[in-house]
Design goal:
five-stranded mixed beta sheet; binds zinc ion; alpha+beta; metalloprotease; Immunoglobulin-like; Neutral Protease, domain 2; Aminopeptidase N; about 40% helix; binds (3S)-3,7-diaminoheptanoic acid
Length: about 900
């Protein structure tokens, strides 16, 4: 699949089926940390659908080749090289036995087989299996696996792999073995093994068809008290997939294993999901409400992959969104159903708002920079760099658009047809689209552009009311604006955009909707317009008064809407729109506009002021007890600094910070009594409850506390926060109190109360790594001041005995938090943040290229920044480019500098 002109670039257009297929794999492991021997016996045959190749080329990395045999006889024509093993002139159909050695103890990349906390784990997606044995390590080669594990019984009492346990027993010399069989064909990236000292929480449940299933959550013994929520999330996921999609668990047993050294969130290995501890372990004392919600979402996500990813997998890695976009959509719907059921639109909207915030802040930014790529990329250098917001989050929006177009029932019909056609196959995004199209009798050729074109589409809206004719016309125009070059190259034509719209009367009610040509108004007061041309006009008739349009309801497509609302109109929508998403959106637009104006002033040193009408709009939201607390919390939270900076012609983090802080202080001081009242009213005394209602109260109360910490005189906030810190019976309240104390003290260079709480927090949770991660992160993201720049605190923490660069969670908690979540401090004028960043990328590159490449991305938008910062950013990028070795980091920094 390599391109001859630029050998490092892999292109989608070059896809060719594999010359050989592997039908069965029998793996035997003798597990020893420094020297694990792997014996791999495969049934290999020529692929009838591929062109002939005399030699078999297997992938392999960091392996010590020992021997090869074909049909039981030693095979001399096997040549090991840097990228794998070449076997010359092989027969058409044969049994191949290979023996090789790897070194899990020294494997700091956390890809392949590695040791963490004295136990063995694997991570194979995308290309880690080739670090375990020589193989056709590509997703369109699917085989059934039998795995035999042998290890010291004392050191590794638990031996796990995919599928069903067939046999276990003792061996001489204190060793033992286990043999596992996975009855389903799978690609190598779904292989997994775990060996070590672990214990499990177990449940037996009956699936839809009445079969008994064994569920296990495996952890280190001291973490057993933090597994209940993950287990409940798994049980809920199993029921949800049966009810919503008719998909049943297909194995007798389903295992989740937690590991503290892990590159990402979790991995959907068949029947043996391996999770970052962060997405498994929770109890009220150690995990926040957000952690509880994330665990539910990630457990769901990995479980849902069993059908969308495992039973039907990807033909090649360009199709990654086939499984990831679809599975993110499924986990988002699962979380929404868990929060609000199918009918509670307000509760569902809370989840929708959170998801759209992430999309707009992260994916829109990605789409505007040098890493911009379509949902189905055309090329890559290192596939691990393409597990992106675009593939996952925009991919999920693309799947959601099918559901918006066809309704839940139509979407389900499409899914049913997809499984009917493709169960057990490795397929493409086109196959998915065709299933959706055919099941709904539609031609979706134009819709393919959502997979081909990078960049965030812009839809500008013009409206016209004809009072005499009672006609209201809405003209939509689509384009991409000044997209980044990486996106511009891919743009070819107009998209099919499902554009949901409502019309609101001057007393705040939804008007009936009747399009020109229709005989009567429909019952629904939201209409999904199918917008397919560059410019298109939709005319509503029998419109009795000039309405206010509610545009792109529920964010029906991943686009930017441009419409010239007045501030009064936005305040009106914030108060009245029946679409909860757009109600929130109106507040965000209002706030964004004010904040950007203020940031512009701050950048040029003009004094800042905020109009009373904006304060009044926030006051109404704050005191409106008819709205749910979780909705109010979201509506009262200002857009993030990163999002705001991205909206400026030239990003200026210092100016954005000044503007946002000014508004927060103004809202705090002007509405002091209301914040205090809300703080009191939404306390949740008594035992901790993890329900959405209780967590909504905590969120609103803690938002109030964070505003109170902005008061010119923060004494009262400090008193409240200290009391909350001491009395807290849960991590949500304790960490929110600590954060309020840190920020209230920032302007004065710290406070006794903040320091005491920090010290107490450390002592209290010294033995809980996930909580110590929070301790690092809270300090890295705290507000700084001239006398106390956060970089100094971060540098000091790098030398803390609990800091460890090799553990990705710990590296993320300190370094990533500072570089990606504290923009005002990271982008200090003196370039200190950039120098720090360069040093850390270089250090991580030698340990773990995947983690290093993630960190490398925090400077990719450097060309969009204010000129005073650009030189420092470029210098840091150049330093990294000149020193790093991995393909992962090089792809990122070279694209950034191109
Ligand atoms: N499929 C994995 C991600 C693998 C990332 C490899 N660099 C987790 C997930 O999306 O569910
Ligand atoms: Zn996934």
């Amino acid at each position: 699949m390599a391109d001859t002109a630029t050998p490092n670039v892999i292109r989608r257009a070059d896809y060719a089926p594999p010359a050989f297929l592997i039908d069965t794999v029998a793996l035997e492991f003798d597990l020893v940390p420094e020297r694990t021997v792997v014996r791999n016996t495969m049934r290999v045959r020529r692929n009838p659908d591929a062109s002939h190749a005399a030699n078999l080329e297997l992938m392999g990395e960091q392996l010590e080749f020992v021997s090869a045999a074909i049909d039981g006889a030693p095979f001399a024509n096997a040549h090991a090289h840097e990228h794998g093993l070449t076997l010359d002139n092989v027969p058409d159909d044969f049994e191949l036995t290979l023996t090789s050695v790897c070194n899990p103890a020294e494997n700091t990349t956390l890809s392949g087989l590695y040791v963490s906390g004295g136990n063995f784990f694997t991570q194979c997606e995308a290309e880690g299996f080739r670090r375990i044995t020589y193989f056709l390590d590509r997703p369109d080669v699917m085989a059934t696996y039998t795995v035999t594990l042998r290890a010291s019984k004392a050191d590794y009492p638990v031996l796990l792999s995919n599928g069903n346990l067939r046999e276990e027993g003792d061996l001489p010399d204190g060793r033992h073995f286990a043999r596992w069989e996975d009855p389903f064909r799978k690609p190598s990236y779904l292989f997994a093994l775990v060996a070590g000292k672990l214990v499990a929480l177990e449940e037996r449940v009956k699936s839809g068809s009445g079969k008994e299933k064994l569920l296990q959550v495996w952890v280190e013994p001291h973490d057993l008290d933090k597994t209940r929520h993950a287990m409940d999330s798994l049980i809920n996921s199993i029921s949800w997939d049966e009810e919503r999609f008719g998909l049943e668990l297909d194995l007798d047993r389903f295992m989740i294993v937690a590991v503290s050294d892990f590159n990402m969130g979790a991995m959907e290995n068949k029947g043996l999901n391996i999770f970052n501890t962060k997405y498994v372990l929770a109890n009220p004392e150690t995990a926040t409400d957000t952690d509880f919600a994330n665990i539910e979402a990630v457990v769901g996500h990995e479980y849902f992959h069993n059908w969308t990813g495992n039973r039907v997998t990807c033909r090649d890695w360009f199709q990654l969104s086939l499984k990831e976009g679809l599975t993110v959509f499924r986990d988002q719907e699962f979380s929404a159903d868990m929060a609000g059921g199918a009918r509670d639109e307000a509760a569902r909207a809370t989840k929708r708002i959170e998801d759209v915030r992430v999309l707009r802040q992260m994916q829109f930014a990605e789409d505007a920079g040098p890493m911009a790529h379509p949902v189905r990329p055309e090329s890559y250098v290192e596939i691990n760099n393409f597990y992106t917001m675009t593939v996952y989050e925009k991919g999920s929006e693309v799947v959601r658009m099918y559901q918006t177009l066809f309704g839940r029932d139509g979407f389900r019909k499409g899914m049913d047809l997809y499984f009917k056609r493709h169960d057990g196959q490795a397929v493409t995004c086109d196959d998915f689209r065709h299933a959706l199209a055919d099941a709904n009798g539609r031609d979706l050729a134009q819709f393919e552009r959502w997979y081909n074109q990078a960049g965030t589409p812009r839809v500008s809206v013009r409206t016209k009311y004809d009072a005499a004719q009672q006609r209201y016309s809405v003209t939509l125009t689509q384009g991409y604006g000044d997209a980044a070059p990486a996106a511009r190259d891919t743009q070819k034509g107009p998209l099919l955009i499902p554009f949901a719209i409502g019309l609101i009367s001057n007393d705040g009610r939804d008007l009936p909707l009747q399009l020109e040509g229709e005989t009567r108004a429909s019952d629904a007061t939201t209409r999904v317009l199918e917008f397919t041309q560059t410019e298109q006009t939709f005319t509503f008739v029998n419109v009795a008064q000039e309405p206010l349009p509610s545009l792109l309801r529920n964010f029906s497509a991943p686009v930017i809407v441009e419409y010239d609302y007045s501030a009064d109109q936005l305040a009106f929508l914030l108060a009245h729109d029946s679409d909860p998403f757009n109600r929130w959106e109106a507040g965000q637009r209002l706030a964004t506009r004010e904040l950007l104006t203020l940031a512009g002033r701050a950048a040029t040193g003009v004094p800042l002021q905020l109009d009373d009408s904006v304060v009044a709009a926030f006051a109404r939201m704050l005191t409106d007890e008819t709205l749910s607390p979780s909705f109010r919390e979201l509506a009262l939270m200002l857009p993030s600094e990163a999002y705001l900076a991205e909206q400026m012609a030239e990003s200026n983090p210092a100016a954005v910070h000044a503007a946002r802080q000014f508004v927060r202080k103004r809202l705090a001081n002007a509405l002091r009594q209301d914040w205090l009242a809300v703080y009191e009213k939404h306390r949740t005394p008594g035992a901790y409850e993890a329900t959405p209602e209780a967590s909504g109260h905590r969120a609103l109360k803690n938002l109030a506390l964070s505003y109170l910490a902005e008061l010119d005189d923060p004494a009262e906030a400090v008193r409240l926060a200290s009391a909350q810190y001491d009395a807290a019976n849960n991590m949500t309240d304790r960490s929110a109190a600590l954060s309020a104390l840190l920020n209230a003290a920032a302007a004065n260079g710290g406070s006794v109360e903040a320091q005491q709480a920090l010290d107490d927090f450390y002592r209290r949770f010294e033995k809980e790594p996930l909580v110590i991660d929070k301790w690092f992160a809270l300090q890295a993201t705290q507000r700084g001041s001239a006398q106390r720049p956060v970089i100094e605190i971060v540098r000091k923490l790098m030398a803390h005995p609990a800091f460890n660069l090799k553990n990705p969670n710990r590296a993320r908690s300190l370094i990533f938090s500072f570089c990606a979540a504290n923009p005002a401090q990271f982008h200090a004028e003196d370039g200190s943040g950039y120098a720090f960043w360069a040093d850390q990328v270089i250090a991580l590159d030698a340990i773990n290229p995947q983690v290093a490449a993630r960190l490398a991305r925090s400077l990719e938008l450097w060309q969009r920044f204010t000129p005073t910062l650009r030189d420092g950013m470029r210098a840091a990028l150049e330093k990294v480019a000149s020193q790093v070795k991995s393909r992962d980091v090089r792809e990122i920094v070279e694209k950034a500098l191109a």
